[in-house]
Amino acid sequence: MKTAITSIKLQKKLHHKLQLTVVNDQYGMRGKNKWILEAIESFLALPDYPNLVDIANCSDQLTDMISLRFPELLMRKLDEAVIHVRRQYPGMEGVKSNLIRASIIQRMIRGATSVTEQDCN
Fold first, then answer.
1. How high is the pLDDT of residue 59?
2. Low-confidence ranges of the chain (pLDDT < 70)
3. Among the residues of 45-71, which ranges form H helices?
4. 104 close to 14: Cβ distance less than 8 angstroms
5. In this predicted model, what pLDDT tens digit does every residue of 44-60 receive, in sequence order?
6. Crossing angle, helix 95-108 and helix 12-24, to 10 degrees?
7. Rounded distance between C-alpha atoms, residue 75 and residue 15, angstroms
8. Rounded to whole angstroms, how far apart are CA atoms 108 and 10?
9. Which terminus, N or C, of the chain has the lesser number of Cβ atoms within 10 Å?
10. Per DSSP, what are the bridge partners of residue 9?
11. Cα 46 from chain centroid (whole Å)
């Protein structure tokens, strides 16, 4: 199976919460990539995901870099999602990174009533 590698930046606080959540969800210290890939799959299945991408559009304090390894099929889905979001929000920059960040935030707050309740900091 072919894979692609991409990197995104996260806020330090979000990265720390992500690490704790991954461990608490029983994925272990090396399970972050799998956890994030599952989060992206779930996020892209939401009918209104393009509207939710804006929650991750916080460009300040993006200090922590993480690299992700994507299966080719998921990378194609992500590329299609980028095009879909850009059609709705042509001025948005960093759409792929925002999609990934929004996926992470959505999965972390799955118990909340709405995705927009999560503070991006």
1. 65
2. 59, 111-121
3. 49-52
4. yes
5. 999 999 989 987 777 67
6. 50
7. 22
8. 14
9. N
10. 65
11. 13
Q: How many CB atoms lie within 10 A of CB 113?
A: 7
Rounded to two decimals, what is the model's pTM?
0.86
Amino acid making up residue 102: A
Instruction: Report d(CA 22, CA 117) in Å as an integer.
Output: 21
Strand partners, 107: none
H or E segment and range at residue 68: strand 62-71
Q: In this structure, which amino acid lies at residue 7?
A: S
User: At which residue do the structure tokens 């995705």 appear?
Assistant: 115
Name which of 43, 54, 40 is nearest 85 in CA terms. Answer: 54
Residues with Cβ within 8 Å of 4's Cβ and at least 6 positions away in sequence, in order, are 69, 70, 72, 75
Quickly tell me which residue has 């919460």 as its tokens.
17
Rounded Cα–Cα distance for residues 114 and 118 (Å)? 8
**What does the domain layout of the chain look like in residue ranges?**
3-113
